[in-house]
Amino acid sequence: MGKKKGDSNSLSKEIYNRLRESITYGYLNPGEKIVASKLEKDFGASRTPIREAIKQLESAGYVEIFHNKGAFVKKTSPEEVERVYDILSVLESHAAKLAAKNITDQQIDGLEQLNNTLKECRDLNRYKEYVEKNSEFHLRICKICGNDLLEILISGLRDRVYRYRFLGITVPGHIEEFISDHENILQALRERDILKTEENMMHHILRLKKILVIFLGEFQF
């Protein structure tokens, strides 16, 4: 019997996640070709779920597909990263402002616990886990804001720069600043200070943008 459609979708998602991780953590480099035959062997998969996964990666900004050539890990310019973070700074600061209006103490406690986990990841140099928990911190605020469309937009944009967030936290001397920014956001949320929450989130996103643009300007990714 052939695989069911649900099985194919699950396999496509697994391939997508594996490739995204490989791109994010430098196992696949910008400009490197995605070799479909290797994926077939590694996953025991047909071309269909592989094509679906690669299309998803293209939509999320991880790869570029060239006719008669195949799919290649996308090279992203500092200018493109800067544009994405400019938009994110506006959207995420607005989401934080909305969250400050209706957040509960229990939700703030949960965010604080996440930030404490980030400190543990920093102390143990667990950068991969740091990126995952950091994403959870930001997306949880999006959920709390109560605007589904805003959450979708932010999640999509954050996906486009997922790899660069990992690079950002590994730039020496800045991870302490990111955690401190989170503490400032949490304090403003506890005070239910809407404007301060918005300003602190804006400052946080723009800080990372500045660090990444400088870093990418010095190296080719």
Written overview of the protein:
The protein has two domains: 5-73, Arc Repressor Mutant, subunit A; 78-218, Up-down Bundle (Four Helix Bundle (Hemerythrin (Met), subunit A)). The protein has helices spanning 5-24, 36-43, 47-59, 78-102, 105-123, 127-145, 148-160, 162-170, 175-190, 194-218, and strands at 63-66, 70-73. Residues 1-5 have low confidence and may be disordered. A two-stranded antiparallel ribbon has the order 1-2. It has 221 residues and is mainly α. The protein is built from ten helices and two strands.
Structure summarized in a few sentences:
The protein is mostly helical.
SS field, number of helical segments: 10
| SSE string, helices as H and strands as E | HHHEEHHHHHHH
What level of helicity do the residues show? over 70%
The largest β sheet comes out as: 2 strands, antiparallel
**For the residues shown, what is the average pLDDT?**
89
How are the elements arranged and paired?
Elements: H1 5-24, H2 36-43, H3 47-59, E1 63-66, E2 70-73, H4 78-102, H5 105-123, H6 127-145, H7 148-160, H8 162-170, H9 175-190, H10 194-218
Antiparallel strand pairs: 1-2
Helix pairs in contact: 1-3, 1-8, 4-6, 4-7, 4-10, 5-6, 5-9, 6-7, 8-10, 9-10
